[in-house]
Design a protein that fits this description.
474 residues; 18 helices; 21% strand; elongated; Rossmann fold; 20 strands; alpha+beta; six-stranded mixed beta sheet; five-stranded antiparallel beta sheet; 3 domains; Phenylalanyl-tRNA Synthetase, Chain B, domain 3; Uridine Diphospho-n-acetylenolpyruvylglucosamine Reductase, domain 3
C-alpha cells in the first residue's frame, strides 16, 4: 500500500508502536478498520507485532450487523489473526442510562476493548480514526463550545489506545484498498444525517472541501498544533496546581482543596483558571458539565471579602477564607452519623458579645471561620427578629430533615429545599429523612458535615454572635 511508509513513520514519530507489542485491533469491517488491520499486518515483521482483532456487534442493524461480524471473522481467518466478537443490546443500554445510541455504543465498545486487551495481555489497542475523523471532531467541538483540548480533536494516543491512521485521509484509505483489491462492508447508518457526526461527515466537510481542497487535512494539521499548545498549557497548569493547591483527602478522593490566592494572582489568568478548573473537576469526579461559568464564579471570590462563598454544581461550595479560596465537596461521607435519625452527637450553642473591636476580631480569636460544616457563626439579633412570633423566638433544635425544610444558599437570600441539597450531595432518598439538621422552624441553619446557611451572616454591625457547633455528646 502506498500509504504504508507514511504510517510507519507516523507510528515511530508519535511513539505509537514498539518492538514486541501485543496489539488488539478494533475491527468493524468498514474501510477504515480493514485498512488498519492490513497496515498492522504489513508492519508485523517491522515491529515484531502480535495481532488480535475484536468485533463489536451493537445489536442495532439485525441481519446487516450479522453480515459484518461474519465478514470480519472470515477476513481474520484468511490472515491467521485471532478473532473475537462481542454482542450488546445498545438500544436497551442507551434507554437505561438515558444517553444517545452513539454515546452508548462508543462507551460499550471501549469498555469491551479494554476488557479483551486485559484478557489477552495486549499493551496496545488500535482503532481506525483518520484525518477526516479528526477534522469532524474539531468541527463538532467548535459548534458545541470547547477549549483547547476539544479543538485538538482526536489524539494519536490515549493510554494504550493508539490511532495509526490519523496521518492519512479517508480518500487515501479507500484508494489504497481499491488498489490492493481489498473488500470491506458499509454500515447503512453512516448515511443517516440525523446523527450530528454523519451530517458533518456527509454534508459539511464535503462543502468545505469544495471551497478549499484538502480542507480536512488542513483542519487536522491545525488540530495537531493546537494539541501541542494544549499539552504545554497542561504542563504549566499542573505545575501551578502543585504549587498553590493543597488537597484534603476523603474516602473517595479529595474532599477539600485550598488555593493560595497570591499564587493564583501571580500566574497568567489562563493558567490560574485552568488550575481552578482542575480542582473543581477533581472534587466533582468528572469533567462533563463543568463549565467556564463555574471557574469564573470561583475566580471572582479572589477580590471579595473573606467569608463570601458560591454554590457550585455537584455539591461543591467555594469560599474565600482570608488569603485562600477553599473548595469543599459536600458528601454523605462527611456527614455526622445519622443512624436511624437519632443523631449520636449533640448541638451546642454559645452566645458571644462584641464588647470591643469587631465581630470579625472576636471570631478570629476563637480560631477563625470554621471549614468543616460542623460549626457556624450567626448574627443573633437578626436570627431573633427573623424567627420571632412577637412573643418568643422559635427554638433551635437538632432533628431529622423533613420535606418542608429549606436553607438559604445564596447571600442574596435565595433558598433551596434541603432534600434537593442532600440529593446534590449524593445522599440517597432513603437517608434524606434521617439526616440530622440544625433548624429554627423549617429554616435549616446547618446540615452537619455538609452545608451551612448563608442567612443572618455576621458583619461589621453585629453585636451579638450565636455560635452553633456539633460535637460528640459529653
Amino acid at each position: 500500500m502506498r500509504i504504508l511508509n507514511r504510517i510507519i513513520e507516523f507510528c515511530r514519530e508519535k511513539d505509537l508502536l514498539d518492538s514486541g507489542d501485543k496489539v488488539l485491533v478494533g475491527l468493524s469491517g468498514g474501510a477504515d478498520s480493514v485498512c488498519l488491520l492490513f497496515m498492522l499486518f504489513s508492519m508485523k515483521e517491522e515491529f515484531d507485532l502480535t495481532i488480535s482483532a475484536l468485533h463489536v456487534n451493537h445489536g442495532i442493524r439485525g441481519a446487516e450487523a450479522d453480515r459484518d461480524e461474519a465478514f470480519c471473522r472470515t477476513l481474520c481467518e484468511k490472515l491467521n489473526i485471532p478473532f473475537y466478537a462481542v454482542r450488546a443490546d445498545i438500544p436497551a443500554m442507551a434507554e437505561k442510562e438515558g444517553i444517545g445510541l452513539e454515546e452508548a455504543g462508543r462507551k460499550f465498545r471501549y469498555e469491551a476493548f479494554e476488557r479483551k486487551a486485559d484478557e489477552l495481555g495486549c499493551n496496545r489497542i488500535a482503532v481506525a480514526h483518520h484525518m477526516n475523523d479528526r477534522a469532524e471532531t474539531v468541527l463538532f467541538q467548535m459548534i458545541r463550545g470547547s477549549k483547547l483540548n476539544g479543538l485538538a480533536g482526536i489524539r494519536e494516543k490515549n493510554g494504550r489506545i493508539v490511532r495509526p491512521l490519523l496521518c492519512v485521509t479517508r480518500e487515501e484509505i479507500e484508494s489504497s484498498l481499491k488498489e490492493e483489491g481489498l473488500d470491506f462492508v458499509t454500515d447503512s447508518t453512516n448515511a443517516d444525517t440525523d446523527y450530528t457526526r454523519n451530517y458533518l461527515r456527509n454534508e459539511i466537510l464535503p462543502a468545505l472541501e469544495s471551497l478549499r481542497p484538502q480542507a480536512a487535512r488542513h483542519i487536522a494539521e491545525t488540530a495537531d498544533y493546537v494539541g501541542r499548545v494544549a499539552d504545554y498549557m497542561q504542563a504549566e497548569t499542573d505545575a501551578l496546581y502543585e504549587a498553590c493547591a493543597k488537597e484534603k483527602q476523603g474516602a473517595d478522593g479529595p474532599s477539600e482543596i485550598i488555593f493560595d490566592i497570591s499564587a493564583l494572582e501571580q500566574a497568567h489568568s489562563l493558567i490560574a483558571e485552568a488550575a481552578v478548573y482542575k480542582g473543581i473537576c477533581k472534587l466533582a469526579g468528572r469533567k462533563k458539565d463543568i463549565t467556564e461559568t463555574f471557574v469564573k464564579m470561583v475566580m471572582e471570590l479572589v477580590d471579595k471579602q473573606s467569608g463570601r462563598s458560591v454554590d457550585i454544581k455537584y455539591g461543591i461550595v467555594a469560599k474565600k477564607i482570608y488569603e485562600t479560596v477553599v473548595l469543599t465537596k459536600a458528601s454523605s461521607e462527611n456527614a455526622v452519623d445519622t443512624g436511624d435519625g437519632n443523631c449520636n452527637n449533640k448541638l451546642y450553642t454559645e452566645l458571644l458579645t462584641v464588647e470591643k473591636g469587631t465581630a470579625a476580631e472576636v471570631i478570629e480569636k476563637r480560631g477563625g471561620l470554621p471549614k468543616d460544616n460542623l460549626k457556624k457563626y450567626f448574627d443573633y439579633d437578626k436570627l431573633l427578629s427573623r424567627h420571632c412570633d412577637g412573643q418568643k423566638a422559635e427554638s433551635i433544635e437538632l432533628r431529622p430533615a423533613t420535606g418542608e425544610d429549606v436553607m438559604t444558599v445564596y447571600r442574596d437570600g435565595r433558598r433551596k429545599k434541603v432534600f434537593d441539597i442532600l440529593k446534590d450531595c449524593k445522599v440517597g432518598a432513603e437517608r434524606r429523612g434521617k439526616t440530622p439538621v440544625v433548624a429554627m422552624g423549617n429554616e435549616v441553619l446547618l446540615i452537619p458535615g455538609l452545608r451551612t446557611s448563608e442567612t443572618c451572616r455576621v458583619d461589621e454591625k453585629t453585636k451579638n454572635i450565636l455560635y452553633l457547633y456539633i460535637a460528640e455528646a459529653e
